Amino acid sequence: MWRVRVRQQRARAAVAAHYYSAMPFDLAHYAFRAMVFVPFAGVPASGAILAAVLSAQPNRHEFMSRRFVVVGLFVSFAGVWLMGLGAWLGRADSRYGAIAYLGMLLITLIGAGLLVAGLGPLPPWLLQISGPYAERTPLPFRLAVRDLGHRRGRAALAITLAMMATAFGIALTVIAVGETTQSRAGYAPRARPGALLVVPGTLYADRFPAADAGTVRAAIERELPGVPIAQSERPSRESWRFSARAENVELPEEALYWDQAIGDEKLLRYLTGDQSTPYDEGTAVVITSADVKVDSVELFYEINENDEMATTKIVRAVIARTADPHMETVFVPSKIVRDLGYRLQPEELIVDPALRRVTVQEQERLDNRLDDALAETYVERGFEASTGWLPVVAAALLLALACALAAGFGKAANARQARILRRAGTGSAAAFRWFCACRAGLSALCGTVLGAVAGCPAGMLLLWPLTAPTTYEEPVRVPFETPWPAIAAVVAGLPLLAALGALLAREQSHVPAPTASRPLNG
């Protein structure tokens, strides 16, 4: 009996998890996760800002020491090593305790922060070494490289912030896609596709009281008039053991009604998916996909607490074929169970999708009719991937774009470059806008490339402790999918957006035109 109750509790938890995944709570979940990551990964990563500011020389003629780059790369390698250690510790599919789980997660988060922090000296170093390579490029790009070198401190800070925001967005994307892959592999349907289930509102309740069942049924009939309602039943809590077993029939582990299904002809036809399935209130039905022959079912029951051993009864049975392993079970008509002395209580109220497919609007209206503590509705629509991470990633990438644009806007760093722009553009603002577009695009390119370098390994290694099993029923891991097309789109798209945003800006160079020479007297 304990196996039956454990399966019922797991089923209720699965219904609740699926139900709440479609609510606005999903966005709050990812926002909360981002806030939790900040203290452990964000604090070490903030060292990237300090490293970028300290390593950027205020004088463009002074070369930054390579010692900053070497030390930074050493810190990044140490971070990768810590992340690898956390992923290695979380690689097993055995269940982890809470302390071990948190330890693995913290190690990996701190490693991710160190990886980003070690990349801090790279933006000013890239600005320093890019100057000689830009001499043979078009004039706006060449001047943009020189200008970023002139304002190395400000540009390095903007690129570093863009790098951190991009790394966070890419890491969260990799994690979300990997967790979605794992959740899809472990998803177990609770009903036939399109079926409406109404279950008790309390999470661990597995039966409706008689009065509540009547209220819920009336609410369904008002919202869906004329639709037949199937009902699965269970012996009341005062009853003891009851189970049905068919010889030579082994039910699959993924079966929804693993013990047995008790109900009337509506439930039988819902289970088989065939409205023409014959029903006899004195005959059990073995619903299976196996090629077996069954002519009887053995019932084991204990009605009284004083029963020393289970009583056995054999009832006539027939076979009904199904192609869906989730619906395989032994169906026992309610009359047979009641004749044994059991009092039955409704377990689920079901609207068969073969008779009526409930829409989202109808489910919402039914929810409004039912009190949350009384009943909970669920429509089986298959696995639905979470989308709560998308707004968080979008906010991070917008922040990266804003940082790149901050480096692109503004007048030229010195008057000499402004004069060159004015001569190249014959006094128009178009040349200055192209100059700003090159500055913004180059800043975004440096930030997004470095962000991808940090975000990809961080996301792929964080997946292992994040998906480590903490309960017995969690599935074995499946190969994770890395969204390389999305990452490539971010790396290529953000610089283009930054350049386009600066190109369309109506900002002027703010460099006054040379004054006309004064006429000579006499």
From TrEMBL:
Question: Which superkingdom?
Answer: Bacteria
Membrane-spanning regions, if any? 30-56, 68-90, 96-119, 155-177, 389-410, 431-464, 484-505
The signal peptide here is: none
Protein's UniProt keywords contain Transmembrane: yes
Q: Could you list this entry's UniProt keywords, alphabetically sorted.
A: Membrane, Transmembrane, Transmembrane helix
Q: What is this protein called?
A: FtsX-like permease family protein
